[in-house]
Amino acid sequence: MQNKLLKKLSSIVGDDHLLEKQAQMEGYLSGPEQPVAVVFPGGTEEVSEIIVLCNELDIKLGVGGHTVNTTGLSGGLAMCMSRMNRVLDIDHENLVSEVEAGTPQGLFQHKIAAEGMYFPPEPYKGDDSSIGACIAAGDLDCKAFVYGPPRAYVLGFEMVMPTGKILQCGSKVIKNVAGYDLIHFIVGSRGTLGVITKIMLKLLPLPEVRRTIIGSFSSLAEAGKVTQTLLERQIFPARLNILNAPLAAKLELDPQQIAPGHLVLVDLEGFHNSTAHLSKEIAALFRVENAQDVLILDAQDGIDVFWRKWLVLKQKYHGDVHDRLIDFLVGPAHVPQALARLEELMADIDSRSDLMVYALNGNIRLAPSAANDKESLLIEVNQLALSLGGNIAGGLGYRLKCAELKEDEMWQEMLNLTSDIRGQFDPNSIMAQAVAQ
User: Fold this and answer.
1) Cα dist. 236→42, 266, 270, 290, 325 in Å?
2) Cα(272)–Cα(210) distance, rounded to whole angstroms?
């Protein structure tokens, strides 16, 4: 069967776009299992032919932009979308762009910025992660409170169904849904309902200016409190993040510019005068709230360098700690309480964990240094989140919530519903459940 698969794949994409040797495939894979090959389609029709072939041969298919996660893909096929990397159209009048799913998000944002337009969501992982991964994951990033989640920018798409049929959905207009909203239903489906090949995205005008304010605090409690003060004053920047001291040190900032400590990161985007005034107000507020040091970045090059460091750190953080990450949410106003409770749960928290907070979303990401700490902390953190009106993120959070409420039937019903939906889209169950960049 393997020889038949490789021969047919070669006839679809050509030998130059098919890898079968392990040493060649390694740079395009992440995860514990090994597929038989990596294939690089060049267009929607080729994607369709590959999916039809997988159905015929009963082979699992995993899809990614720059790399493919191999979880559940042992003996299957990895499809990398990196050849499909063109920006097909930029409509200045309607602020819309059509882009192929394998296009690196950083490259796309750079290209539209040169034409005065803006796609706010952060790259799913790093600059090289694809637009398709951003939409397939649909995750909230730290700019989502102000700009909305990725789904808010999707006006339409072209997708190959798990049966091989090609579906086109949406248009350039904002109101284009009657009945079920299939466009936004696909966002966040993590590649389980089909392979997105082209995406139509809503854009925004590029902000006139940016400012970055970094405050260093001697305690996590002080860092949390200052974010609450900003919210109470109705100050909502594009980003408002907290890094505890051990994680902040990995940004490798110049100590001559900003003293080491727990860092509060603020990103402002807007008009020249108002942004300059607000940056000074925030810096003054930081000092009032006992910041041991404050830095304002106002040069665009310096701002770009700093937030690129942030993206690299975020990508490495999530990659390195994936198996031990505890990701939970509370209301933004409850972030200081949640941090204080975490310090109670984990004595000497800074020596035992890295901590990343998207304060505007109330999203706290805790990575215990020891893998076995996760299991011992998970139930307590879940109870903490529930007590503040929040939850552990994702399906795990829903399962834990059902367990806490003793609603096992509710959890089983959710699993059945998810399985039924997937079965309607993917009757032969060829789509692996992995998400990749």
Assistant:
1) 42, 9, 12, 21, 27
2) 8
Q: Give the tens place of pLDDT for each residue, 169-212.
A: 886 666 565 566 777 788 888 888 899 999 999 999 999 999 99
pLDDT digits (tens, 9 = 90+) for 283-305: 999 999 999 999 999 999 899 99
List the single range of 51-65, 237-251, 369-383 with lowest mean pLDDT. Answer: 369-383
Considering only CA atoms, which of 43, 45, 38, 86 is closest in space to residue 63?
38
Rounded to whole angstroms, the maximal C-alpha distance in the chain is: 70
> Which amino acid type is present at position 184?
H
- Classify the C-alpha dihedral 210-300-249-27 as positive or negative: positive
Dihedral over alpha carbons 153, 362, 210, 138 (to 10 degrees)? -20
Here the tokens at position 364 are: 């706290």
Residue 319 is predicted with a pLDDT of 66
Which residue stretches of 249-299 are H helix? 272-288
Q: How confident is the model at residue 366 (pLDDT cuts 50, 70, 90)?
A: confident
In angstroms, the CA 135 to CA 188 distance is: 6
Q: Tell me which DSSP letter residue 26 carries.
A: G
Torsions phi, psi for 10 (to 5 deg): -60, -35
Separation CA 133–CA 437 (nearest Å): 5
Q: What is the pTM of this model?
A: 0.87
* Residue 421, both tokens: 């939906």
DSSP H or E run through 216: strand 209-217
CA distances from 122 to 31, 143, 210, 212, 232 (A): 23, 7, 16, 16, 26
Q: What's 71's DSSP letter?
A: T
Q: What is the CA radius of gyration of the chain?
A: 23
What tokens does 115 get? 């034409």
Query: Which of 361, 226, 368, 386 shows the shortest CA–CA distance to 290?
Result: 226
Task: Find how far residue 393's CA is from the centre of its chain.
Answer: 13
Residue 436 has pLDDT above 50, yes or no: no
Higher pLDDT, 349 or 194: 194
DSSP state of 173: S
Q: Please say if the pLDDT value at position 437 is more than 60.
A: no
Please state, rounded to an integer, the average pLDDT across all residues of the chain.
Answer: 88
Per-residue confidence (pLDDT) for residue 124, from 0 to 100:
72
β strands within 218-349, DSSP E:
239-243, 262-270, 293-297, 326-329
Whether 191 and 162 have beta carbons less than 8 Å apart is answered as no
For residue 378, which phi and psi values (nearest 5 degrees)? Answer: -60, -50
What SS3 state is found at 376? helix
